[in-house]
Amino acid sequence: MKKIFMAIASGLLAVGIGVAAVGCSGAGDISVYNRESGSGTRDAFLELLGIDEAELNTGVAQLASTSAVITGVAGDKKAIGYASLGSVDSTVKALSVDGVAPTEETVADGTYKIARPFELMYDETKLAQNDLLDAFIAYLKSADAQQVIAEEGYVSVVSDATSYAVPTEAFTVTEIEASGSTSVGPLMTMLADKFETMVKEANGQDVSITVSGGGSGQGIADANSGKTEIGMASKEVKKGTDVTNENVTILQLCADGIAVIVNKANPATDIALDNLKKIYTDNALNWSDIGVEFSEE
Fold first, then answer.
1. What is the pLDDT of residues 176-190, one digit of tens each?
2. How far apart (Å, rounded) are the C-alpha atoms in residues 113 and 217?
3. 142-153, pLDDT tens digit by residue?
4. Measured between alpha carbons, how far is 249 from 111 in angstroms, rounded to an integer?
5. What is 116-256's CATH topology?
6. What is the spatial distance between Cα 107 and Cα 113, in angstroms, rounded to a whole number?
7. Are both 7-114+258-290 and 116-256 of the same fold?
8. Which of 124, 129, 131, 96 has the alpha carbon at shortest distance from 111?
9. DSSP 83-117
């Protein structure tokens, strides 16, 4: 069984703190959920909306993981938040933005505007010494991995990939770790599980690819320092500014939409990009100010 450390306990604590913070703000009736500083999803979301950190709504709840945002919105009738499209489940409702629904197709063709890359970072010079890392990276670039990516609702960015065959000889390295983005984490865990099964079937060997969280900032730091073999980020990673280790290579795993999510009791089905920006910058805003009227209880 994969070992995933996504700080669930702290995420649930953050939900409680966040709800209290928003509920006690004494401002508008929209409960606004945001990711914590260092989150790649947060960085990408704010950048795509053109929001500076200084402009942020002071009543925004800062939550520690994708799952914490989804849990918070699912339990708060007047809430709004955002999460990786591939992580959104039936407990919340994803809104269209400017009339365009967040789907694999609209992310791929560019009509859905709130989208970003999932990127991995690894030390290219370590591949010759670490045969498990070398093989796993080769698998991630393969048609087999890209099929899993597409089946899970993410957008494949590799058009000419071929199938991957696991070596029949045993690996000399049996354990590696990927760390960072909690948005990339669930997909990476699934890919790691698939690869581990392929290895077991090919040569009978048990290998372990551990996936841990901490946010995109942590993934970038771990890749730079070599603390883990693979760093994960849910935003565009830039060589020289984010990645300062000259040996670290950046690999785009896939693309993903950032879904705007609301409680299932919310009557809204679409939101204008301008109104979304207002919500995240104006803590006095009510749902009625943007044309959303809740029925009387």
1. 999 999 989 999 999
2. 23
3. 999 999 998 888
4. 29
5. D-Maltodextrin-Binding Protein; domain 2 (3.40.190)
6. 7
7. yes
8. 96
9. EEGGG--TTEEEEEETTB---HHHHHHT-S-SEEE
